[in-house]
């Protein structure tokens, strides 16, 4: 760490004597040491400096020198003050005012402390200087005659050189750790956690939709969103030139917000915060930028890999929905180490669609829900997990910002088709009464899929005893009848057979199935049963 004002004053070889502490606790790091005797020193000073002066351009306080009055007039004119006083007796108040103005301007410039060298001109520090320092609450120390200002400057410069080397060593190690983390299968979470550890604070990644994708400390969610909004306002104001935001909030809390991406491809922003103070600020700024660079480098290729795998995930979920578990398992093998065990639970989450905005949200499932397989299918996200993985999935759903979700039990491989429908039904029940309507649900989603499948199998069982050719003609007739709203003539036309042929087939179907096709309730049950049989045949 760069030398602090307290450490400088404690160097025994320098023999510095503290005159007034200015309310400082000694932990403030020195930015630079500046030696000058000019009265307008504030014009050349910067925040965090220590100003060293012998004040040779200031008159003596007792005005014992013949040139002191003219010197006082010159100094006051240089500072824009009135020089209308006659003699040494009337110059006491202007002299005090000169020091007050001098110290006041240094305080406004952010000068940390004044080191006053005695006996070069002034035998002691002028009382007017001490009074002004106390008035403006600045730190003042005395430099003895035998100590050259260059000794003080060398002490500070040597410390700063050591600090610069230390920063380079620390940042080299930090950059290496951050880029290693960016190679993780979930680089966002890995880099966020590593940045939080290195900064001794917390970190978060927020996407373009202002959603927290990953955060190292959940209690900081509100603070992260506040800082992200502040970065958003700066971007609105500065346009594409806005890349990062640094500052101090709530006293000693330092923060760094970096946009990740380019003009044509923005990913989001990284927020890093620490409560460490002192010269750590230089390291912290570099750390935040390095973490953002690591994500900038890794995200494009990781997203490409994830999107490629997403296509396989969608196919796997489609195979499970159709009941082809072995086919799904062969696809899942290269993607996940975990394979389904029963009983399991299937979650349905929406709104999730295959889009750039959802990549970061779905990517986070990989590390948040280890005992799970997932994929986007038919504009919904499906997560299949073991009994022990349910808590992790539900925590992820709660933190993902998804509006609605539902789930269903999976008792074994054969229950997947029904579980998909039941999960949707459960989701729709959760949606009921919310701002999203349930009016767009499909007829299948209105009935219990397992019960409907059992009913369909039993209803159409008698047709299995009919010769294959006749079975096909009867099922084709049934299909066209339902498509034509049971209009005999329309169905006959589509089948390209005589009307009486269709009528005869209807009689036989009613006898085999035990249904009266003129009864509306029977038609509804027939439609439901046929749709489930048809889906099973297509699968």
Automatic annotation (TrEMBL):
Domain (PucR C-terminal helix-turn-helix) ranges: 474-530
Coiled coil: none
Domain Purine catabolism PurC-like, first and last residues per copy: 98-158
Protein name as it appears in the record: PucR family transcriptional regulator
Native source species: Bifidobacterium tibiigranuli
């Amino acid at each position: 760490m760069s030398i602090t004002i307290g450490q400088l004053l404690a160097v025994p070889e320098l023999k510095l004597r503290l005159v007034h502490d200015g309310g400082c606790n000694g932990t403030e790091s020195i930015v630079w040491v500046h030696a000058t005797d000019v009265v307008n020193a504030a014009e050349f000073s910067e925040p965090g400096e220590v100003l060293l002066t012998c004040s040779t351009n200031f008159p003596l306080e007792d005005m014992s020198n013949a040139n002191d009055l003219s010197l006082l007039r010159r100094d006051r004119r240089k500072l824009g003050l009135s020089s209308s006083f006659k003699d040494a007796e009337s110059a006491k108040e202007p002299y005090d005012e000169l020091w007050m103005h001098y110290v006041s301007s240094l305080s406004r410039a952010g000068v940390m402390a004044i080191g006053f060298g005695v006996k070069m001109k002034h035998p002691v520090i002028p009382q007017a200087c001490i009074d002004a320092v106390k008035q403006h609450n600045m730190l003042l120390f005395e430099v003895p005659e035998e100590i050259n200002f260059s000794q003080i400057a060398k002490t500070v410069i040597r410390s700063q050189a050591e600090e610069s080397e230390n920063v380079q060593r620390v940042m080299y190690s930090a950059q290496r750790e951050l880029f290693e983390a960016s190679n993780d299968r979930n680089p966002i979470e890995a880099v966020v956690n590593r940045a939080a550890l290195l900064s001794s604070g917390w970190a978060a990644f927020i996407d373009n939709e202002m959603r927290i994708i990953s955060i190292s400390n959940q209690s900081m969610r509100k603070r992260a969103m506040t800082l992200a909004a502040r970065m958003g306002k700066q971007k609105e104001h500065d346009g594409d030139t806005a890349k990062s935001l640094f500052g101090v909030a709530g006293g000693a809390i330092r923060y760094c917000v970096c946009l990740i991406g380019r003009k044509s491809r923005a990913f989001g922003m990284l927020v890093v915060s620490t409560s460490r103070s002192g010269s750590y600020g230089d390291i912290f700024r570099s750390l935040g930028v390095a973490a953002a660079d690591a994500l900038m480098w890794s995200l494009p290729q990781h997203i490409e890999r994830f999107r490629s795998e997403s296509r396989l995930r969608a196919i796997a979920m489609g195979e499970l929905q159709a009941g082809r578990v072995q086919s799904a398992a062969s696809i899942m093998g290269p993607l996940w180490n975990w394979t389904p065990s029963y009983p399991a639970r299937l979650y349905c989450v929406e709104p999730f669609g295959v889009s750039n905005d959802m990549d970061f949200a779905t990517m986070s499932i990989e590390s948040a829900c280890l005992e799970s397989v997932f994929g986007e299918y038919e504009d919904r996200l499906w997560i299949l997990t073991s009994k022990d993985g349910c808590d992790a999935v539900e925590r992820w759903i709660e933190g993902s910002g998804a509006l609605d979700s539902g789930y269903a039990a999976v008792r074994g491989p054969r229950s997947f088709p029904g579980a998909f429908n039941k999960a949707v039904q459960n989701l729709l029940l959760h949606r009921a009464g919310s701002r999203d309507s349930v009016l767009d649900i499909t007829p299948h989603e209105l009935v219990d899929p397992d019960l409907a499948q059992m009913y369909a199998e039993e209803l159409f069982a008698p047709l299995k005893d009919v010769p294959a050719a006749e079975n096909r003609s009867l099922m084709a007739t049934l299909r066209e009848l339902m498509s034509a709203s049971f209009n005999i003539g329309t169905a006959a036309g589509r089948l390209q057979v005589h009307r009486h042929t269709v009528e005869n087939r209807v009689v036989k179907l009613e006898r085999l199935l035990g249904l009266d096709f003129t009864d509306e309730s029977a038609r509804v049950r027939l439609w439901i049963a046929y749709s489930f049989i048809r889906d099973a045949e297509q699968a």
